[in-house]
Amino acid sequence: MGIARSTYYDAPAADRDAEILTRIEAICAEFEAYGYRRVTAELRHQGHFVNSKKVRRLMRER
Fold first, then answer.
1. Rounded to a whole number, what is the largest CA-CA distance in the chain?
2. What is residue 33's DSSP assignment?
3. pTM
């Protein structure tokens, strides 16, 4: 095919971040005073295992 195997199997980061970002926005809309630590804890409570560094980066970009 002419492309690397990792390109075929790996999903783009934007697609994975989009779902997490919508969940972060929903949590922040419900609980306005939550920081990245509480948002990360809420995401984990909902069953999404995501690193706190990613949550902090996505919240900073928004």
1. 50
2. T
3. 0.75
Q: What tokens does 6 get?
A: 């990792």
Provide the token pair at 27. 């949590």
Chain centre distance of CA 51: 8
The DSSP secondary-structure symbol of 34 reads -
> What does the pLDDT profile of the chain (62 residues) look like in tens digits?
677 776 666 666 677 788 999 999 999 999 999 999 999 999 999 999 999 999 999 999 98
Burial of 20 (0-12, 13-18, 19+ CB in 10 A): middle
Terminal-residue alpha carbon distance, the chain: 38
